[in-house]
Design brief:
Helices cover about 45% and strands about 25% of the residues. It has about 375 residues and is of the alpha+beta class.
Length: about 375
């Protein structure tokens, strides 16, 4: 059996998995894939295969066929001009990504094409409402599809769909034990595309999602500047953090004239500073309406939340001073150790925490007799 958790983010898909043989489980594995997906023709796939000299790794050449249509996802999709569509439903793209991920892992791990699958997936709260529909579509798609020309027939033996932030909330619930059933726990997930708040009030779930992720800020910056590419702007703004200076922004300038280049850099710096301030104020105003004042705990996750950590801490200190706050449900160190990651690299441990929390929950459901993955308490 393949145990798989997929967090189909807008910039990349974060995938945690283990392979089981009976009660024996492989080590934890991590797979990161570019998130873009697009449809293609069979002729385009044939032309691509005819041009290649060597065979890339499966995660770099993920194309699938199901329901008579062909799709490319991840790195290969960029070759076919796929772009990020922030308006697209994540769950529709997630079906393609699940099939591609299963194909990639089966190829890398030497698994049979007729395997059993235990799957958990994270979606924005607004799309989580369609989880039963998602399960039905996944069961149909997994029952017969092709990955790089090889036919697969996968049995979806276990499936759980969670709202984004659910993994962090489940982790807190595990540590709180029976008191979780009498508590109001809030999970705040602030990512690249979406900003979600889900509330468990005595285990009754409610929530809301807004398109107020990091991408909203980047798009506003692009509207007020000239010629800035999304990826280079994302990297520059994220790396600079709150310290927006000419030194860490100068490489974004496009002008070849030295004088105009200096002016362009100064303009970009001022735009980023202004938009960053306006954007954070809009988000914090939304959070003031979305976060219940009587919450016992707030669990915070997502790379954008850490980017605005200083502003969030100040906001929570002023408005929720009696509420306990946990960042990534204290899972960052566990993620770092389990996957042997560099904690300083691109906030990766933070961005993986929710998916890892979901995986822990799923493993305990599929293998209830096994010891918990984590033993530390807080």
């Amino acid at each position: 059996m393949l145990l798989l958790t997929l967090d189909p983010g807008t910039t990349d898909s974060k995938i945690c998995y283990r392979v089981s043989e009976g009660e024996n489980l492989s080590s934890f594995k991590l797979l990161l894939m570019d998130s873009v997906t697009t449809t293609v023709s069979r002729e385009s796939i044939s032309a691509y295969e005819g041009d290649r000299i060597t065979t890339p790794l499966p995660e770099s050449e993920a194309w699938i066929k199901y329901d008579e249509d062909y799709y490319v996802t991840g790195f290969l999709a960029q070759r076919f001009g796929a772009v990020v569509d922030k308006k697209a439903l994540k769950y529709e793209g997630a079906i393609t990504k699940v099939l591609a991920t299963v194909g990639v892992i089966a190829t890398k791990e030497g698994l049979a094409s007729n395997l059993d699958l235990a799957l958990s997936i994270a979606l924005p709260y607004s799309e989580w409402q369609d989880r039963n529909k998602i399960q039905q579509e996944l069961e149909t798609a997994l029952s017969r599809f092709w990955f790089r020309g090889q036919e697969f027939s996968v049995n979806l033996e276990f499936f759980k769909c969670f709202p984004e932030g659910g993994g962090l909330m489940l982790t807190r619930g595990k540590k709180l034990g029976s008191s979780f059933n009498q508590s109001k726990i809030v999970s705040l997930m602030w990512g690249y595309r979406d900003l979600s708040v889900i509330t468990s009030d005595r285990c009754v779930i409610d929530g809301q999602t807004a398109k107020l992720g990091f991408l909203e800020m980047l798009e506003q910056i692009q509207k007020l500047t000239s010629g800035l590419e999304s990826k280079e702007l994302l990297h520059a703004v994220h790396s600079a953090g709150a310290k927006i200076t000419t030194k860490n922004i100068k490489h974004l300038a496009k002008s070849q004239n030295p004088k105009r280049k200096v002016e362009e850099v100064l303009d970009i710096v001022e735009v980023i500073k202004r938009v960053r301030g306006d954007y954070s104020r809009i988000v914090l105003k939304w959070l003031l309406m979305a976060l219940p004042q009587d919450s016992h705990e707030i669990v915070i996750g997502g790379g954008t939340a850490y980017y605005f950590q200083r502003e969030l801490k100040d906001f929570l200190g002023r408005n929720y001073h009696s509420t306990k706050v946990f960042w990534s449900a204290d899972l960052e160190k566990d993620v770092q150790m389990v996957f042997n990651l560099d904690p300083q690299k691109d906030s990766i441990c933070v961005r993986l925490a929710d998916a890892y929390g979901l995986f822990r929950y799923m493993q305990q459901q599929v293998f209830p007799s096994r010891s918990p993955i984590l033993t530390r308490k807080s």
